[in-house]
Design goal:
The complex is a heterodimer of chains A (694) and B (300). With 694 residues, chain A is α+β, with helices and mostly antiparallel strands. Chain A has 3 domains: 15-113, Phosphorylase Kinase, domain 1 (2-Layer Sandwich), CATH 3.30.200.20; 117-187 and 200-288, Transferase(Phosphotransferase) domain 1 (Transferase(Phosphotransferase), domain 1); 382-693, YVTN repeat-like/Quinoprotein amine dehydrogenase (Methylamine Dehydrogenase, Chain H). Chain A is 13% helix and 30% strand. Chain A has a 6-stranded antiparallel beta sheet with strand order 1-2-3-4-6-5, with helices on one face. Chain A has a 5-stranded antiparallel beta sheet with strand order 11-28-27-26-25, with no helix packed on it. In chain A, strands 12-43-42-41 form a 4-stranded antiparallel beta sheet, with no helix packed on it. In chain A, a hairpin with a 3-residue loop joins strand 13 (394-396) and strand 14 (400-404). In chain B, helix 3 (91-116) runs antiparallel to helix 4. The longest helix of chain B has 26 residues, at 91-116. The relative contact order of chain B is 0.19. With 300 residues, chain B is of the alpha+beta class. Helices cover 31% and strands 27% of the residues of chain B. Chain B has helices at 3-8, 17-23, 91-116, 129-147, 192-198, 243-246, 251-260, 264-277, and strands at 42-49, 59-70, 73-86, 152-153, 155-161, 164-170, 174-179, 182-185, 212-213, 226-231, 237-241, 284-291. Chain B has a domain at 56-237: 4-Layer Sandwich (Phosphatase 2c, domain 1). In chain B, the strands form 2 sheets. In chain B, strands 2, 3, 4, 5, 6 and 10 form a 6-stranded antiparallel beta sheet that branches. Chain B has a 5-stranded antiparallel beta sheet with strand order 1-12-11-7-8. The chains are: A alpha+beta (694), B alpha+beta (300).
């Protein structure tokens, strides 16, 4: 009776299966054209021939069951008919009405009102730039209306497949309709094999088989997220909405809209809007721009960051970080809405102290407390003359001390008497301390190469870079880390010199990296302090100071300390890079901080050596050395040792900065002293290396 | 949790052979296993099985092992790749095979061949290993996208140089490290199931989740690749496998097998047999690499 011509009755979604124009279904519906092709079959535009006097158009959705098992197929058809019976009773302007359904062999058909227009997925794709926020909100409100209607049926009808391609915008109006109910789902059972890509808009509980009206709310939120940011959730790792709130991707959105969407996207259904009506109210409020009605804060909430003029960037593929606030008194604008945690949740500060609300004010300059000059200068135990300046610091081994000089050599001298053992020549000055690791000395030269030589002076490997190396290497976990003037930080296998990874900054890297448990911390002349992943060199975070970070960072538990030529010492959270506190000195700081007993010791070119409490940033004391300090101090239980540009090496007591002795050389001391077994070793630009009693 | 100390930490010195024999539990007469472990160097075995349910084997694998002797000792080099293909009409098989070959060719050309050159230590071609691995996988992706339009594949590759393994990974094939009787999953699955698990929404009763990946080779012209660095201490075993293995047997069974086996070959045959016993619903592929005991120190 219902003669329908098929090209090929078997199989699904085959181009050959699509009914041709002019084919007639059930002796009543004439195929005019194909509106679209889905996974289960096509959607056709048909003309209802029963009404011969007028042109009445219908949309017919075809579903082809691909399972070969007739039993399964029968069940699927029954399920489909049950759903059709349910849907035919629905009556809402936002839902196309259903007028008929029938099944022919392996195919089932649903006859619906033809909604002329464009679906939102196509619309989004064909629109340049972002869609208008208010327009999208008005659509969302209409959809909520439909959802309210569906969810209040007895029993509630859950749409289950809400997404942009299932929302039609009626032609020449601003009215939307939901098409394509989840009815097609009954035909999808038993799909084998691996799929790539996820539906993207489905809530987590849907994978537990739970069909809850609040799942539709999530799906609407996911749809809005996509419509307002153009970020397709099917192309991203599933359930990562919280890493990219809408406002981050589309800063023109209002905060209220942002918050409404994020609330719908809570993974726990109990934390979302509990009804479509509630969501509709929130959307209407956002549309009105009604700030008095803030959404409920139900999530863990972000702690407002310790405000600082130097915000931290969390590195993902992100737009640039927010600009630092001009007056230090105000907190910087939070890059994420205050109710939702940023991708790296704020670590609770572990020592029970809250972050300082404002950076501590610099202490007023104290009255000079210069000690009277001590007449009895100290005598060196030995000294050794190189052919050129000794600008860097030494490393101590069991027998020898190793130090580099601007005469291009690394020297090995016996510890106790300075006797020359050997020297290793490179083609450039050695500006950094050689790093002693097992029986290897690893160091860089201004000839752009990093070397590893044995403690006997034999070459093991070299690693070329493209810039002078002035940074000392740090070695841990069998890998050496160092920076070069070629703007990069290198991670190199300590045994073979093979480069494992390198990270590019925007300026020369002179700072010696500091290695933590999972991250390596290093500063660059580009002004940033970086937290890099140890294994692959990707930047977890970067912290911006206002000038260069030349010295090396120091690490104490979860706090990284770095100093900048912007005059400040910074304390930064090691896991996230958030600023904890900062302290201002009187001039730039080129050297590195040293931590001892929860106190930071650092010298500034403002001629003072500072002792700063690590937890609070409070200055315990400062000592006026009369001349700029560019080297890193050496600290023991008793004393602090440091050199100045006037060529003096100081030893002062650690607790109360009393002068113990000072030793005068003929030229500035830019290198850092090193103390071992009661002897202090120091090099000077007068070409000498000295050993002094501590 | 000090993940990286475990990754990079130095091995404890092994006792001499005589001491170990005194301490060891009684061994069976026929099984003359050196309790201190396999001889120095890499020991490798691999096995790929179609399983009980599938019509074809869409998994691919490659193993390549070398030992280079220098005056200061021996250095291992190895390349091991597992890939699990997907897509109808044999597209999966073609995709996984192509990806493995293209990635391997790139790594061999740019890492192994320069490695053999006499001037190795001062080699100008010092491209960081991590970047090299990522380039290799991107190249494989490009090949699959261009040539196998309906196919896709996972890929997990391990490049071993000396005592370190450098891994590149995408999809749900896995790399495990078995050391001191502890099993650690090195790679993270790029699957919907794993994401739900991360959110605390995992569980045994999930629907429509099996085998849904959100990242694979052949998915898109640009891809993101995970990389890992893993130190290999003496007697540690690196295991690469497809989900036909890890999805079929429990972690306990896996640990037990690794504990009891005396060679990589035994590990592979036992694991594949167990997976088949459990139904063999998918192709099963495994590569086992055991690092031998530490060589006696050479004089410097």
């Amino acid at each position: 009776m219902a003669a329908t011509e098929y090209l090929n009755p078997d199989g699904a979604n085959n181009d050959e299966n699509i009914l041709p124009k002019g084919a007639i279904l059930q002796n009543r519906y004439e195929i005019v054209k194909v509106l679209g092709v889905g996974g289960m079959g096509a959607v056709y535009l048909t003309r209802d021939l029963r009404f011969s006097g007028v042109t009445r158009m219908c949309a017919i959705k075809e579903m082809i069951s691909s399972t070969p098992d007739p039993q399964v197929r029968r069940l699927a058809v029954q399920s489909f008919e049950r759903e059709a019976n349910l849907l035919v009773q629905l009556n809402h302007i936002g839902i196309p009405s259903i007028s008929d359904f029938f099944t022919e062999s392996v195919r089932s058909y649903l006859v619906m009102e033809y909604v002329e227009g464009q679906n939102l997925e196509d619309l989004l794709e064909s629109t340049e730039g972002m869609l208008d926020e208010k327009t999208v909100l008005s659509w969302a409100i209409q959809i909520c209306d439909v959802l309210v209607y569906l969810h209040t049926q007895e029993p509630p009808v859950v749409f289950r497949d809400l997404k942009p391609s299932n929302i039609m915008l009626r032609q020449q109006s601003n009215k939307v309709a939901l098409i394509d109910f989840g009815i097609a789902k009954v035909f999808e059972a038993g799909q084998k094999g691996t799929m790539i890509g996820t539906e993207g808009y489905s809530p987590p509980e849907q994978y537990k088989g739970i069909a809850d009206p609040r799942g539709d709310i999530y799906a609407l939120g996911a749809t809005l997220h996509h419509l307002l940011t153009k970020r397709d959730p099917r192309l991203e790792p599933p359930f990562t909405f919280h890493e990219e709130p809408p406002r981050l991707l589309n800063p023109n959105l209002s905060e209220e809209t942002n918050n409404v969407i994020m609330k719908t996207l809570e993974y726990e259904p109990d934390k979302r809007y509990q009804s479509a009506q509630e969501m509709k109210n929130a959307l209407e409020s956002a549309l009105r721009g009604d700030h008095s009605q803030r959404p409920q804060s139900q999530t863990t909430g972000t702690q407002i960051l310790s405000p600082s003029a130097n915000p931290t960037t969390i590195l993902r593929d992100q737009p640039p970080p927010p600009q630092p606030a001009a007056p230090p008194q105000q907190p910087p604008p939070a890059p994420y809405p205050p109710n939702y945690a940023p991708p790296h949740p704020q670590q609770p500060y572990p020592y029970g102290y809250p972050p300082q609300p404002y950076p501590p004010q610099p202490y007023p300059p104290q009255a000079p407390t210069d000690e009277p000059d001590l007449d009895d200068s100290i005598l060196p135990i030995w000294n050794f003359k190189c052919e050129d300046e000794v600008r860097s610091s030494a490393s101590i081994g069991p027998q020898n001390i190793y130090i580099g000089s601007y005469d291009h050599n690394v020297y090995a001298l016996t510890k106790h008497n300075g006797e020359f053992q050997w020297k290793y020549p490179t083609d450039g000055g050695i500006a950094a301390r050689p790093c002693l690791y097992k029986d290897l000395l690893i160091f860089g030269s201004e000839d752009r190469i990093a070397y590893a030589i044995t403690t006997q002076g034999r070459l093991m490997w070299t690693c070329p870079t493209e810039g002078r190396i002035r940074s000392s290497a740090a070695v841990e976990y069998d890998h050496a880390f160092f920076g070069s003037d070629d703007y990069r930080v290198y991670a190199v296998n300590a045994q073979t010199g093979r480069v494992i990874w390198r990270f590019e900054t925007m300026g020369p890297v002179r700072s010696s990296p500091k290695i933590g448990d999972e991250l390596v911390f290093v500063g660059s002349e580009d002004g940033f302090l970086y937290g890099l992943d140890l294994a692959n060199g990707s930047a977890r975070w970067k912290f911006k100071s206002n000038r260069n970070i030349t010295g090396s960072p120091a690490l104490f538990k979860d706090i990284v300390i770095a100093a900048s030529t912007d005059w400040n010492v910074y304390a930064v959270d090691a896991k996230t890079g958030y600023s904890i506190w900062q302290v201002r000195t009187g001039q730039s700081i080129i050297s590195s901080p040293v931590i001892f007993n929860e106190t930071i010791y650092i010298g500034s070119t403002d001629k003072h050596l500072y002792a700063i409490d690590i937890k609070t940033g409070r200055i315990r004391w400062k000592f006026n050395a009369g001349s700029p300090i560019v080297s890193t101090p050496a600290v023991t239980e008793e004393a602090v040792y440091f050199g100045t540009m006037a060529g003096e090496l100081f030893s002062i007591t650690r607790k109360d900065k009393k002068l113990r002795w000072k030793f005068k050389t003929d030229s500035p001391i830019p290198g850092s002293p090193i103390v071992a077994e009661g002897i202090v070793y120091i090099g000077s630009m007068d070409h000498q290396v000295y050993a002094l009693p501590a | 949790m000090n993940i990286f100390k475990r990754l990079f930490s130095q091995p404890k010195p092994q006792p001499t052979i005589i001491e170990a024999a005194e301490q060891a539990a009684p061994q069976s007469e026929t099984n003359q296993v050196d309790p201190a472990g396999l001889p120095p160097g890499l020991h490798v075995a691999s096995l790929s099985d179609i399983g009980q349910a599938r019509q074809q084997n869409e998994d691919s694998l490659l193993t390549l092992k070398a030992a280079l002797q220098y005056d200061y000792g021996q250095e291992n080099w190895g390349l091991f790749i597992v890939a699990d293909g997907m897509g109808g009409h044999q597209q999966g098989e073609i995709a996984s095979s192509l990806a493995v070959r293209v990635a391997a060719a790139h790594i061999i050309e740019n890492n192994y061949l320069p490695y053999l050159e006499p001037a190795r230590q001062n080699s100008a071609n010092n491209l960081p290993v991590i970047e090299l691995l990522q380039d290799a996988v991107k190249k494989a992706n490009h090949a699959v996208v261009e040539n196998v339009p309906d196919g896709a594949t996972t890929l997990t590759a391990a490049l071993i140089m000396g005592n370190n393994a450098y891994l590149a990974h995408i999809g749900d094939t896995r790399a495990y490290l078995f050391k001191d009787e502890q099993l650690k999953q090195i790679t993270q699955d790029h699957s919907l199931a794993q994401r739900l698990e991360d959110l605390g929404q995992g569980g045994p009763d999930l629907v429509n989740v099996k085998n849904v990946l959100y990242r694979a080779i052949g998915q898109d012209s640009s891809i993101e690749i995970d990389t890992y660095v893993q130190h290999l201490s003496p007697n540690a075993t690196l295991l690469l496998c497809s989900d036909g293995l890890w999805g079929a047997i429990t972690e306990q069974a896996l640990i037990q097998t690794l504990k009891e086996a005396t060679s990589p070959r035994e590990i592979c045959t036992s694991l594949v047999a167990q997976a088949n016993q459990q139904g063999g619903h998918d192709n099963i592929t495994v590569i086992a690499i055991t690092e031998g005991k530490e060589a006696s120190p050479s004089s410097t």
